[in-house]
Amino acid sequence: MEIIYPTGSTCINELRVEEKAELFDSAKYLDFKLGEVVVKKGAPVHDLYLLQAGTVELALDDDRSKQSLMLLFPGEIIGINCAYSTKNYRFSARALTDCKVLIIDYQLFTRLLTSNPRFSMAFIQYISMVNENFLNWHMKLTERNSAGALAFLLCEFEKSYGQRSFEVPLTRSDIARVIGFSKESVLKNLADFRKEGIVESEGRKITILNYERLQDISAYG
């Protein structure tokens, strides 16, 4: 079956007009500053957190030095893979940029799942995509060399932003921590990418010049 619900937002779009109105009318917005913890590891799952703007990092602990799991972009429901499998979050989520999050009532969301079969099927497909992405991040960042891991991360930013030129919301040290390699390797690989005409970079701004080559490095690096 083709996966057609890649984000939480596209999944929610399957609600009927009146259901969507009920969901959003009962929700509330929260703003998080760069570095703030959005979801704390071990906290009970009471609500759902739909990321509206910004970038969030999932990690095994709240400390920035702990192991990074993956990044989440607008449209994702933070920690959704814990929401219906455990009572508590098994990882933390920290804002890598200023973020806007929509807090969705858990009980209402669950009721809509049971009353709307189309929405329920969309949610199943979305959860499948979440698990696939989680596994993909793990494989790409543990089975690739530093160049392959960096290329994968840049391709993920391109996919999320939908454009070849974007501002990376990470310092070089953050990039190194996320992909699990040293800052020196990140700087070297970026320099190599520039020499090969794959990317241009100025500060945090990255422009991908040869996306196909970057994808090849991501796949086989």
Give the ordered list of helices and strands.
Answer: HHEEEEEEHEEHHHEHHEEH
Give start-end ranges of low-pLDDT stretches. none
Radius of gyration: 18 Å
Mean pLDDT score? 90
Q: Approximately how much beta-strand content do the residues carry?
A: 15-25%
Indicate the structural class: alpha+beta
Shape: elongated
How much helicity do the residues have? Answer: 40-55%
User: Helix count, per DSSP?
Assistant: 9
Fold and architecture overview:
- The relative contact order is 0.14.
- A hairpin with a 2-residue loop joins strand 10 and strand 11 (205-208).
- The protein has a four-stranded antiparallel sheet. A four-stranded antiparallel sheet has the order 2-7-4-5. A three-stranded antiparallel sheet has the order 9-11-10.
- It is built from nine helices and eleven strands.
- The chain has 221 residues and is an alpha+beta fold.
- The chain is 46% helix and 22% strand.
- The longest helix has 26 residues, at 117-142.
What's this model, at a glance?
46% of the residues lie in helices and 22% in strands. It is built from 9 helices and 11 strands. A hairpin with an 8-residue loop joins strand 4 and strand 5.
